[in-house]
Amino acid sequence: MTQELIANMLGVRREGVTEAAGKLQKLGVIDYCRGHITVLDRSKLEALSCECYAVVKRESDRLLPLHMSDLAKAETPQTCSNH
């Protein structure tokens, strides 16, 4: 998933996504490399997000028949060699 795609989905500038992803990576919350985002510390990521996260998560879980964590388990993790 590219930063441009994330920016378009959120309705923000790509530079804002770049800055946010960089901060989250420095905090050890995510790893972002060549369009692949890996959440390293979900509880910390949730703590850093706004209060609307819980509302969005609850609705997503209700509306999506297959939970996103089930999809993540099915995928093979990708590693980035430039770190």
CATH topology annotation: Arc Repressor Mutant, subunit A
Beta strand %: 5-15%
CATH architecture: Orthogonal Bundle
Strand order of the largest sheet: 1-2
Descriptive notes:
By secondary structure, the chain is mainly alpha-helical. It has a single domain, classed as Orthogonal Bundle (Arc Repressor Mutant, subunit A). Strands 1-2 form a two-stranded antiparallel sheet. A hairpin with a 2-residue loop joins strand 1 and strand 2. Helix 1 crosses helix 2. The radius of gyration is 14 Å and the shape is globular.
Spell out the key features of this protein.
Arc Repressor Mutant, subunit A, 10% strand, mainly alpha, 57% helix, 83 residues
Secondary structure elements and pairings:
Blueprint: H1 3-10, H2 14-26, E1 30-33, E2 36-39, H3 42-48, H4 52-63, H5 68-74
Antiparallel strand pairs: 1-2
Helix pairs in contact: 1-2
Q: What's this, in brief?
A:
It is built from 5 helices and 2 strands. With 83 residues, the chain is mainly alpha-helical.
